[in-house]
Structure prediction request, 127 residues.
Amino acid sequence: MNGERSVADVLQDVLRNLQEIVRSEVRLARVEIRDETRRAVSSGMWIAAGVVGALSAWMFLLWTVAYLLATRISMWAATLVVAVVMACVGSVLLVGGIRRVKRIQPIPERTVESVKENLEWMKQPTK
Prediction:
């Protein structure tokens, strides 16, 4: 042969190159997903640590309020007042959150309606 390749050889090379490109893209996707997963886990750990810190601070703040109340009333009554107030606040927040969750519509109704209208329009005979 004088350097010319057959069509079959060229097609085989093209297919091999396409396969290698696809394999490379899959490897790249795996690496990217792994990196993003690591970042997400790391971020989640930072958030969890922040939540623990904030909850600890909140508990100490509540104890401070209880000790402040204890200068006027007995300690058991002061901690009871703080507990009752926090129970009321927590209940209001829970009920509000539950009401908000119930209003969530998992099905995008406007999109469904739009799709239905488009399907009806497409069924119309063209004039």
